[in-house]
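Quick start: what a row looks like.
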Amino acid sequence: KFPKHISHLKKFISKFYKKETCSHNNNDYFVLENLKNSVGNNVQTLDIKIGYNTALAFESNMIRSKRHYIIDNYLSHSSKRGYRIEGLTGYNSAKIMKNIKTRSMLSVGDRKKYNLYKADLSYILSEFFTNRQERIKCLTELKKINKLFVIPNYNAHINGKESVSFIGSSILIIKGSKKTIVRLIDLNHPVWKRIKKNSKEDEHKSL
């Protein structure tokens, strides 16, 4: 049985359907809910990658780890601010992208997302949310995640109790004409405190 704070995590991730699977390149996957279906029209999404380190050597191969080290430390402000904007989609995204002042050397052709890596979050949020009600809805959801999972999970970790952290996870904000929702995504690199194979240094970095 999971501790309460880890059980609460289920409230903030996409639902998946145990009896439904799909295949790609000979691999089987669970089917996840399409979060865009419930928010109405004019859907926009904002993907914020969390963490000062978004790939760690003990958990990944050397090439991937080095690639993310360069992104974290040189191509984005992840290593300084603990986040970067990973993606932006929707009817208004082209206009927002056009006005971003930062430019990345990797941003050629259809790889414009790299311009987001050093973009100012306050500017993106001010353009992403069009009214106060949307901002309040988003803030309310973030406070729930913080209260029910992030804070108790962190406290459990520093007190030597069971906890879980994720390397390279993201906060996904989805809004439309009906509502705004916030979910945690990219949770495929967990580090469990109860599993002793990871060093304390690796656990702290992932947290």
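That is the whole record. The mean pLDDT is 83. Residues 132-158 form the longest helix (27 residues).
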